[in-house]
Hints:
Helices cover 40% and strands 16% of the residues. By secondary structure, the protein is an alpha/beta fold. It folds into 2 domains: 12-136, P-loop containing nucleotide triphosphate hydrolases (Rossmann fold, 3-Layer(aba) Sandwich); 142-408, no CATH class. It has a 6-stranded mixed β-sheet with strand order 8-9-10-11-13-12, sandwiched between helices. Strands 2-3-4-1-5 form a 5-stranded parallel β-sheet, with helices on one face. Strands 6-7 form a two-stranded antiparallel sheet. Helix 4 runs parallel beside helix 5 (95-104). The longest helix is centred in the middle third of the chain and has 22 residues, at 186-207. It is globular, with a radius of gyration of 22 Å.
Amino acid sequence: xxxxxxxxxxxxxKDLSRLLESGYSGLILGPRQVGKTTLTRHILADVKNTHNxxxxxxxxxxxxxxxxxxxxxxxxxxxxxxxVFIDEAQKVPxxxxxxxxxxxxxxxxxxxxxxxxxxxxxxxxxxxxGRIKRYFMDPLLWGELGVIKENSIPGLAxxxxxxxxxxxxxxxxxxxxxxxxxxxxKSEREEFLKSYALIYLDEEIRAESLSRKIGxxxxxxxxxxRESGTNPNYxxxxxESGTSIQTIKDYxxxxxxxxxxxxxxxxxxxxxxxxxxxxxxxxxxxxVRNALARWxxxxxxxxxxxxxxxxxxxxxxxxRRARALNKNYRVNYWRTSGGAEVDCVIDFGGEAIPIEIxxxxxxxMGELKGLKNFLREYSxxxxxxxxxxxxxxxxxxxxxxxxxPWVCL
Length: 409
């Protein structure tokens, strides 16, 4: 598929189209550059009586910062009930009070995007509970890249909605899957990702009132990117960045609130063993993570740290699928004080599926101590375990353990 000429289909498109038909309003949250604006413009292209407000425009932003209520007068002056698109709403959180008034009066339908729940909360925006449907948009999922060959894990099945592009595993491990990245020649991807990192630091962090600490935060960001996918060592990060442990924890909260990291909690049930309780953090996109960590952005880099990158890659897909499927699944990890560990546990409520992630093509049972322990410990709720590999075929390793190629997740 020629991704430079064709609009990539997104899973969220059907949900938003149904939303528009229903007459309800929607709020789309997601990190910068995941395609929120592109998708919204696409689905609104043929909708009549649409009015757009792009708050990244300095003049538009300044007008609403000065007088957020002006949108009420502008909407009330329209002859027909409009569909209003407000892009980057977190830049003027005060506008949500006016939006709430217009929704209560049934004067307009809204599609709103934002990339920072933190700014919305700090600005007093209540995100309109009960009045608006919320959605989350991620970088491209594997089905949006067209690389899924089969679905092997119950509850995570998704179909391809685009034809397969020229996306190798190595490319995805190094450059990630932001829509703006995969359409670029490889020679330009590194510059794009480095620019993203600089823009994030400049626009997002300075807006979080951290400009006086930008040096310390910049050092933390590089270290946190390198630690992505692990339980962070706050003492080590504090020593290496020159900030207090509490400041490190506050910085992680900033990353979470600006949607740059995914937090994965430990799996906690009535285990007889003491479970380590600290969360793990995964940067929302591998390309961004690699750029922030200052890793070489080349295919050779993928081979050097393939195990670490591959685990990150698969974890992000599982997290994104649970969200895209609109299921109330919990994605956890499991680790005991004795060292038994499982990379991922999908908690369906009454059932759990443990998943190990190995970057090798072939895996032996001797490498799956944690998975076997989990299946034994939680035999009442976990009947089958899986190993995600870089191999080409599925393989039954035991009565309750199956190895699955990543394209068959």
